[in-house]
Here is the input.
Amino acid sequence: MCPDVDDEYDDQGPSEEDIARFAGDEAFCPDCGALIWDQAEICPKCHAYIGGNATSRSPVQRWVQHRWTIVVVILLLIAFLLCVL
Here is the structure.
């Protein structure tokens, strides 16, 4: 290995410029729920093709919203049936 190249390309993670550039642009992979950059084409964790389908809500938030929607629909159906009968 060449010491000049090693010193020049010492990769210790993202630079401050990269952090400032991508700060706040986070989303979640729709397949595995990993935190990703919102414009990522492929999830770095599960390697799923995202293609712009990243979501800003965590998997837990999506699960809770889905369950609440089901509960509300069931309650509305019960209320409707009680009013009709």
Notes: Strands lie at 26-28, 35-37. The chain has three helices and two strands.
